Amino acid sequence: MSDASITYFPVGNGDTSLIRLSDKTAIIIDSNIRHASRDEEDKSCYDVHAHLLAELERDSEGRPFTDAFILSHPDQDHCRGFESTFHTGPPDTYKKKDDEPEKIIISELWFSRRIFANFEEEELCGDAEVFLKEAVRRIKLYKSKDPKRHLAGNRLRVIGYGDSEMTEGLDEVTTPPGASINLINNSLKKDFAFFIHAPFKHHVDSRWSPRNNTSIVLQARFDVDGVARASLALFGGDACWEIWAAILRRSVRETLEWDLFLAPHHCSWSFFNETPYEEHKVPQDSSLEVLDHHREGASVVASSKPIKDDDDNPPHYAAKAEYVRAVGTDHFICTGEHTSEDKPLPVIFAMTSNGPVKDESATASRVRSAAAVQSSLRTPRTYGHE
Amino acid sequence: MATSEENLFSAAYAKEDPASWGQEIEAAFAELRRITGGEVRCVHWNDDYVAAAFTVKVDLPSRGPVGGVDIRAEEPVMLVFSRRDYPERAPMVRSDRKDFPVSRLSHLNPVKAGQPPYLCMHRGSYDDWFAEHTLEDVVTRLRGWLRDAARNRLIPEGDRFEPTRINNAIGAAIFSPQSFKNWINEGWKSTGGEPGYGFLLMSLLDRDKRDPVRDGGFPVSVWRFYAKEEDLTEAHKAVSKLNSLISESDSLAPLCFGVLCWSSRDLPITEYFGQLPENVSELLELCRRHNIPLGAALSDYAARDLRQINGLPVILGLVRHQPLIRSDSNIEPLCFVLDGSAPDFTEKRELPEEAQVSALIQRSPLTPEMARNISGTGDDALPGRILLFGGGALGSKLAMHYGRSGHTALTTVDPANLSPHNFVRHALLAERAGQNKAEAIKRSIEAIYEGITESQKPDAHTGSALDLIKGEQRAKLGDYSLLIDATASGMVNEAVVRATLPEGLKVVRCGIADRGKVGLLAVEGPRRNPRVDDVNVLVYDIAIDEPALRQWLERERKQREEQVGAVLDEITIGMSCSSDTMRLADDLVSWHASTFSAGLRKLLNRMPESRTGHLILNYHAEQGDDHGNESLVSRRIPIEPFLVLPAQAVDDWRVCDAGGWQVRIRSQTVREMRERLQRAAPKETGGLMIGVAHSKRRIIYVTRIIDAPPDSKGTSSGFRRGTRRLPQAVDAIKKASGGLLGYVGDWHTHPRGSGRISTTDIKAMLQTKRDFDMAGIPTFILIASHKGFHAYVSVPE
Fold first, then answer.
1. Cβ separation of B767 and A379 shorter than 8 Å?
2. Each residue's pLDDT tens digit, B201-213
3. Which of A79, A347, B230, B446 could disulfide-link A127, Cβ–Cβ 3.0 to 4.6 Å?
C-alpha cells in the first residue's frame, strides 16, 4: 500500500494529470505531451513521457502501462503527443524501437462519444485521429464479443450514453453522467471512485455545442485510513460556465465538493462568464457557487503557462484573481510557475485522511533524475574544439 | 500560527558566531541560509555543540493536521552541530518549540525534562545515513518528518508500534520477551486484567555494581516472577543466605529482587515518552497517569524487606494499541533501576522523591546455542602495529585470528558493550557479557598469552574511531602501519576517506553483505590510490559481469525501494551485525573473516613492491559441483590507481572553479579513452561515461565507457554523439548494478590542440544541464587530448 496521489504535469496551456491509487493503479487524464529535448521553442518543457516511463508499473513482459487513460475531449491541447507516447493497436503488436522512448500501453481507454461526431466544422487533429482509430478498434472487439476485449490493452469505457450507432450495445462498459464508478481496469477499488458529472447528452449530440462543452467532468473521491471522501478532486477539461451552471442545478452538494480543482480551460475566463472578458466582466453567480463548494484548505491548480497581468486568455489574469479570492494566494498553483517559470516541475499532492498535502517525496526526486537521464540520452550532443 | 519568542527554547540561548566554530560549521550555516532562504540564528548549546535555529515550512493537509496534532505550517527547529565531529557526526535535529506535541508523536528520542524535543531522523544509524547525504537532505527529511507527523504517517500504515527509544541506558535488564509476556499474563490473572504488580528474582551480572547505581554498567538477568499474593519468605531467606556466601567471592555477583508492574489489559496506552523519568517522583507520576500501582509495589517491597543491594530494578509492562516492531506482543517493557539506598526505605516504605531513576535497555538472553570458534593460524607475520576499528562480529574474528597467530600488537577501537545476542557471531564468549568490546578483545588476547612484551601488548580504545581520526588521539596514528576498518559504518568510512593520514599507514576496509553471501575487503594502493571509496565503486562495476554480485545488488535495490521513508540512495558495503534482528550465520562471518585474515596477510607481505590496491571478493558462485552444491569463491583482484582530476566549472560561458568537485577514473577506462583518441585521430570521437556522482563528497567516479553509437559522427573539427540504443545500453548497466551505476556524462576527444572546453562544448553541456538541473544532479563532460584529460562539472543552481 502506498499513499494515493495526483500529479499535475507542467505542460503549458493543456492538461496532463496522473492519478495514483493506494494499490498503485495509474490513471492518466488527458495528454499535452511535448518532448523536452526536441522542443527548442520551449526550453523549460518538462519531459512528461520520460517521467511516466520512470514512474509507471511494468506488465509481465516488461512493458510500461497505465490502467486507464481518460480523454476529456478531443482537442489538441488534451491529446497532443498521444501517438508518440501511447501504444495503439492490439497489445501483442507492441514493439520497442531502438531510437525511440518506449510507448505506454493503455489497459483501459475512457472517452465520450463526441469523438465520433462528424460535424464539418470540427476537424480532429492528428493525435485525436489516432485516438479515434484506437477507440474504434476496441469498440469492434466489444461489438463482436471477441474474448480478447477483456484483455488489458483492449478494454474501454464509454462516458455518456450507448444510444448512438457507434456506442450502442456497449452497455456493459458505459457509465452515464450522474453515476459513480469504482471499477477501473477490471478491478473494483475499495478506496476510490469517480463521480461522473458530464458531458450531457444534448451537448454531445449538438453540432452547435463547442467541443469544450462536451468535456468529461469528474469528481475523484479518495477514502484514506477508513475516512470516506477524505480527499476530493474535480477535473473538468475545458467545460465553460454554462456547463458548470447546469451541473450545479442537477447535483447534490457532496458531488460538488472539492479539495483540489483543476481550473477549467487552463484558467480561462470562460469558466466565469462569456468571453471576451471586456464585455462580461462580472462572474456568473453559478460559477462562484461552484467555487464555494471547496472544503477547508482547498487548492486550485491552473494547468497553464505562467499567468501574466495582460489580456491573454487562457490563462486569464482576472480568472486567477477570482480563484485567489476563493482559496487564497497560497492555495492557487499554476503548473507553469511551479516551482519556477524557468524550470517548472510537476505539482504532486498526496492524499491524507484530512485532505491532500503537497508532496516532495524522495520517490518524486528519483523519478525526475531517471527522467532527466533518459531525456539526455535520447538527444544527440555536438562537441568540438575551436 | 507563528510561534512566539517566549515559546522558543533558543530565545534563552546565548548568541554565537558560526565563524568561531570552524570552517565546516561556518559553511554549514551558509548552506542552511541558502537552503531555507531565511534567517538562521547561531546559538550556544554547550561548549562542544552549537545550534542553528531557523524555521522550516511544512506542507500540511488541506484541512489541517490529521487528528488535530499541533504541527504548524512554520515550525521553528534547531540543528545542533558537534564542533569536533561535524560533518562525520550528523547534526541533531531538535524542535525549538516548548509546546511541541511530544506525547502524541513517535520517532522521538527521549530527552531530559526541559530540553528541546529530539527528532529521530532515521531508523538505523543517523550518522551513517548522513555520511551519504547532505544538509539539504537533512532539511528535506526534517520537513518530511513534520509533514508525516501532520498526516499521521510517522509510523507507516500497517507498521507496528515503535517502542520507546532508550539512548542513555546505564545497563541492561536481560529477559526473554516470552517470559515477560507470561509474567504479565500471570499477573493479569490475579488482577482480572487490571493494573497490578509482582516481584522478580534477578541476578546482578557485574559484582562491582553491587553498591553504586549511578554510573554505567548495571546489567541484571531476570530469573523468575512472583505474584504479589505469593509468600516470599523462603525465597527471601535463601537469597539472603546465598548473597552472604558469595559476598566473599571476587567473581560472583549477588542476587536481588525487583518489581514488575503492569497496566490495564484492556486500556492501551497511546502516550509516547519523549522524556523518561529521572527520579522517583517522575516515575511515580508516569505510573499514576496510567493507573500503574508502583507506589503500592514499592511499599510492599519495603514491607517485605526485599532489598539486597542498593539498586532496585523496576520493570513496567505497558499495553500498547498495536504489536511492537519486531515482536508479536503489544506489551512494551520499560526497565529502570532506582537508587534504593535511602536508609529509612524499610521504615517509611517509600523512597525519597528525588532518588535517582536510570533507564535500562531490555535485552533478550542468549540462546543456549553457542557457535564454535574458528582458529586461523598462519606463518606469515603482519607488519607493524594494527589499528582495528570495530570489535564486532567481523572485527573480533580478525582480531582473534591475528591474536591467536601471535600478532598481538593490535589496538581495537569500539565504544559498544557486548550484549548477549552478540555471542551468536562474536569471536568472544559469554563470560565477556557487559564488557566493552575493545576491552574484551584486549583481555581475551592477553589471556591467551603470558609474558607479552610491552610493545607487543594488545590495547583498547573504548571511544569512537573519530577520536583517532580527528580527535585528541590523532597524533598516535603514526604508531600504526595498518588500519583495518571493520565497522560497516558509513560514518567511519566517510571519515577515513576524508582524512589526511600518515604516509606509512595502509588502509583496509572490510565488510559482509547480502546476508553473508558476499564479502569484500578493499586494500588501498600506494599514496592512498586507489582509495577505499574507489574500490567500493569498482565493486558495482565488477557486478555487471558477475551474476552472484548482480543478484546481491538487485536484492539491495528492491530492499531500498521497499523501505519507503528510510531509503538510502547508495548502499554501504557491509552490514552491521550488532543487531539482534540481523540474520547471518556465524560460520559465514567466519568464512569471510578467515579469507580476509589469510588474504590480507599474504598481500601485506608482498605490499612493499606492489603498485596497486587490492580487492578480496568472496561470494557464492552459481556454478557448483555436479551435486548442485554452491561454490564458495574468494578472489584477489589487483586494482590499479585511479586517474584523479580536479574539475572545473563553466559559468556564463567562462571556465571557473567547480567548488572542489573531483573526478576519479578507473585506469582501465583511461586507457580505453586514450586508445579511442589515438585510433580516431585526426577525427574526434567520444561516448558516454558510466559511474556514480557522489554529491556529498563532490566526487564523480567513472568506472567504464560506452562507445559512441553508430549514428554518431566524428570529424576533424567536431563530434556529434548519436543516440541509437543508448537508453537500452545504460538501462542494462543500471539494472546489472542494482541501480548504483548509471550515466554520469559524455566524453569526447580533442586530438588537435588542448583539452580545453570550446564554445560548442559549452553549448552542448548547457543543453544537458537544462535536463539535469531540473533533476538536481550534476552535469559533467570530459575532454581527452594528447596533452591530458580535462573534467568540467556544473552543479544545479
1. yes
2. 988 877 676 666 6
3. A79
